[in-house]
Structure formats: C-alpha cells, structure tokens
Amino acid sequence: MFAPLRNRVFAWLWIGVVASSIGSFAQTVGAQWLFIQDPGAATIVSLVAAANALPVMLLALPAGVISGAFDRRQLMIGIQVYAISIAVLLAVLAWSGGLGAPLLLAFTFLVGAGLALQLPTWQPSMTELVPRSQIAAATRLDMINVNVARAAGPAIAGALMAAWGVPPVLAFNAACTLVLLAWRRPSIASAQRERFLPALRSGARYVRHEPHVCTILVRVVLFVAPATALWALLTKGVGGGP
C-alpha cells in the first residue's frame, strides 16, 4: 500500500497535496467562525460551506479538459500561485477587519475554484510518477489524504483560533499551499490538443457509454449526496440554526 511513497517525487507531492487539503479545510472552518456570532450565522455558515463546494461541482468537467490540454506541472504551479494569492489577500482582509459576509463568500468561492482545478490536475499526474503496478496503491493514498485533511484541518483551525483568532487560520492555508510549489519535473512537450468543447463532449460521451464508469459514478452519488447533506446539517447546527 505504501510502495508509491518510496518514489521521492510522488512522496513530496503527496505530502504537498495533504498539506494543501488540510489548509483548505482549516480555511473553511475559519471562514465560518468569523460570523458565528452574527444574527444570520446559520445562513452564513451554510453558505460558506456551499461556496466552498459549488466550484467543484461547476468546474469539474472543464477542469478535467484543461488538465489534459496543458503541462500538468506548469498548471499545478499556476493553480498554487493563484491559491496562495487568494489565501493571503483573505488573511489580510480578515486582519484589517474589512471582510464582510458577501466578500467572504466570494473569496471562499475563489478558493474552491482553485481546489476544483487542482484535483483533476493532481490525480492524473500520479500515472506519471509511479509504475503502473502501483497506481491502485497511489489512488488509495490519495483517498487517505482526503480523510486525513478532513480530520486534521478543522482540528488545527480550532487550535489556532483558540490561541490567536481566525486570521492566522487563513494565513495557515496560504502556508500549506506553498508546499506544492516544490515540484521540479521537467516540462514535457505537449502533443496536439483537442479543442475545448469537442473534448468536453467526448468525455461526456465516453462516460455515458461506458457502463463501468457509470456504475462508479452512481455509487459515488449515492454515498456523497447523503454525506454532504449531513455536513450541511452539522455546519448549520454550529451556526446556531434549528
């Protein structure tokens, strides 16, 4: 299971993705806590969670096409520079006291957009970093990353908020994102790429006519939809809703 971690490049990138994901979950908790005492806290807290998840739903297919059309290392670095810029600006606004609810939701959506682009760029990159025989193990390690980040991110955010308040949590997200800039794979010459809309249609057509992929997607939806509803109820409860 841990064989892919013997590959130094994969190990460092996996650690970077774990750190970035932890920062993202911590940022969501910090953003929600900023308005926990607001009269409309239940609504704001729920909207923060929605603004964080909505970009993944809206941008997953376009992001997949983009990840196949450009050098993944350069794209990953560009995404991280974007994510760091947004996280730093969010932290500065929180420190200055100029972060209102509409601005917070807008920045949360922008952070989620970076995550939506990062996921389909990182996951196919695993096939370049490990032998074919280790791809299944690398995929399982990626799933561990998600669960570790979901557990550790909010816990770290809570500790930071208890000691220093919310702004350091947002700065922590920016610091975590920096780790992924260490990827030093040489750029690969790009082959001729399919145009964006035809590529999007080809992907949708493949999914529609491939029964195994359809089965996997149905199972994912059957699990994720109820789980997401549970997270929404929990965050609303934290915000003081009924």
Question: Would you give an account of this structure?
Answer:
The longest helix has 30 residues, at 135-164. Mean pLDDT is 78; it is low at 238-242. It contains eight helices and no strands. The termini are far apart. It is 80% helix and 0% strand. With 242 residues, the chain is mainly alpha-helical. It has helices at 8-34, 41-69, 72-96, 101-129, 135-164, 167-177, 196-209, 211-238.
Keywords:
0% strand, 8 helices, 80% helix, disordered C terminus, mainly alpha, 242 residues
Give the overall form. Answer: globular
The fraction of residues assigned to DSSP E strands is under 5%
Mean pLDDT: 78
What's the count of strands?
0
Question: Which structural class matches the secondary elements?
Answer: mainly alpha
For this structure, the quaternary state is single chain
Radius of gyration, in angstroms, nearest whole number: 19 Å
Poorly predicted runs of 5 or more residues: 238-242
